[in-house]
Amino acid sequence: MDEYTPAQVAEATGFSLDTLRYYEKEGLIGPVERTVGGRRRYRSSDLAWLDLIKCLRDTGMPIADLKRYSRLSEDDSTLAERFALLEAHDRVVQAEIDRLRERQHRLHEKMAWYREQLGG
Amino acid sequence: MDEYTPAQVAEATGFSLDTLRYYEKEGLIGPVERTVGGRRRYRSSDLAWLDLIKCLRDTGMPIADLKRYSRLSEDDSTLAERFALLEAHDRVVQAEIDRLRERQHRLHEKMAWYREQLGG
DNA sequence: CTGCAAGCTGGAGTGCGCTCCAGCTCAAGC
DNA sequence: GCTTGAGCTGGAGCGCACTCCAGCTTGCAG
């Protein structure tokens, strides 16, 4: 019924319970609904948002930027700004991929040298 | 003449002076030669080694692994082990690249959504 | 009704990889 | 000889992103 316990969300998103609470405290996710007893009850919209957060975190976006993106998302008039933020992040990610591939090339050269020493 | 001051090495490798000293203290680089007055004098072999360290660090190899690789490099009979270490690292790097590309794909989808919202 | 797992809060602690600092020595130029 | 800047050491501090903990409350299972 579109309701999830913290444990289920942790399972689904890969974030730990502590991390979920930390993100909420930091404002990366808006205040999550609570049951009468005070327990968190997440909705599928929260899951979708957390999936995006995960994507951005996994690609190295710092918490501070995520916080900014999150604040912007509360205001409908900030679409362009949010888009610009993602665009900038995309460039960072692309640069990181390029850098890794370049370094990997060096690494392969070194490995070729070892192969030569070992068997060739 | 194959001798470099710390400042020159920092310039050449992109490591800070503090980082160079830290790496030496941690054993990532063997004790660097000293002048009579006690100042470090690096050789081009040190530069080559530091370049490799840089490549490995930039691709995310932790200091502890680098330490191990460095210790192994002192013993000629460990070629195979060192090769295995690099091979394992290469797999990690490849996985990281793949993961980044996958996430970037999601990011592009999100950006496409924004473009649609913004201008049609 | 009881037991026990799950969840709550605020705050302290952790791991990594540096980075900074004080107080000193050394060396090259004038 | 003096100044100035580069370098030295040991150790403290930092930023980030969690992670752990104590002490408590909640709520389902039997």
Automatic annotation (TrEMBL), chains A, B:
The keyword ATP-binding does not apply. The keyword DNA-binding applies. It comes from the Bacteria. GO terms for molecular function: DNA binding; DNA-binding transcription factor activity. Residues 3-72 form the HTH merR-type domain. InterPro entries: DNA-bd_dom_put_sf, MerR-type_HTH_dom, MerR_fam. Keywords: DNA-binding. Pfam families: MerR_1. This is MerR family transcriptional regulator. The lineage of its organism: Bacteria, Bacillati, Actinomycetota, Actinomycetes, Micrococcales.
